Amino acid sequence: MATKGRAQTPDRVTQAGQACEELREALKAAGVVLPSLGLDPVSCTGSAPLGLIDLGRCNIATARALAAALRPQAAK
Q1: Per-block average pLDDT, block size 10, for the chain (76 residues)?
Q2: Are 39 and 53 in contact (CB under 8 A)?
Q3: What are the residue ranges spanned by the domains of the chain?
């Protein structure tokens, strides 16, 4: 059973990294850059890593650009 957990660990972190890059590319296409976007290092460690994505902090202009980019999607 321990082997199965270890096999899933890199996969979970790899998937989180891929999702983070997909999000970065989608945000860039919408004209939004989150400078602190990345994997949360604490959530990627331990025996059962979660692989959380940290969106980080942004300034007011970036927050407004992100809100504007999301509004059209909410209407669908």
Answers
A1: 51 94 95 94 90 94 92 69
A2: yes
A3: 2-74
